[in-house]
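The step that takes the researchers longest sounds almost clerical: writing a folded protein down as plain text. The outcome of that step, for a single protein, is printed below.
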Amino acid sequence: MLTIPGMGPKKVKAIYDQLSIATVGELEYACHENRLVDLPGFGRKTQENILKGIDQLKQHRGQYLCHEAMQVARPLFDALIASELTARVALAGSLRRRQEIVEQVDLVASTTQDERLRRTVAKWPLVGEVLISEPAHLSLQLQGGVKADIHLVDEVAFPFALHALTGNQSYLSVIEAHATQHGYTLDKDGLRRGNERVACHEEEAIFAALGLSYIPPELREGLGEIEAAARGALPRLIDERDIQGVFHVHSTWSDGMATIEEMARTAQGWATAIWDSPTTASRRAMPMVSTLTGCANSNRLIDRANEMFDGLTILRGVRSTSSPTAPWIIPTTS
């Protein structure tokens, strides 16, 4: 934590002593929960600066959370589509596999105008610096520090390049060996049986030709998924349509940033549970919810939100820990 700009030994010790935070990841999570706001010598502005410092640290290390990398990749993806110099564009690499930590953004673009496309991309405001500009490869440092590689291919090679640039090395080794066992050669340029090319317009056709069920990008890690695909035994991945509710959120009655009504508007169609915390980790909340009266007032707002919004069920909850300052549990009705 000492490598974070603005974090000296005294601040690090205070955070450790009072919140038991020992890692940068824990510190970032605590900042997002507003747990530093009421620490002596900190405050909201200091907390914001610490978050900015953590962002700078991550950029320097070249590691980004998946959703952060996706926020950077989306404008680049959209710009490539809008340029009208590409036929198809797709995310690749660890970002397409939805890895938790991503080191760079990878995209595959099919084009017949690679030179013009490279000149155009170099002028975009979102590009900080062009690191490499070759006929088949454009490497960029985007504004904000994230590295992005754009792999340029023709339309015929697009599905094969996308496949090769998505899976990790373990996955590629196994699937290439599987192709060889079945009389094929598979690489980023195509699928061949002897000297004959096998036409595949989409990735699904590659798997079908090899006698495999389609393997979602998230599973391409070389962890037995190819054997499972050969047996037709791949699991169905959870997607956003499967999520029916969120069961631990905080409101402005404790250290949250949104009111109960604001969260209710956002969560229509879901079930959610609000757990505001009268604990030492949330001292700002204690005057509000550390009494039965406070809980009753919060519950009335929850009842009101349940009446206001159709297709929404808000469950009540209180999180409390035993400590010298709070040696009790507050009962609530459900």
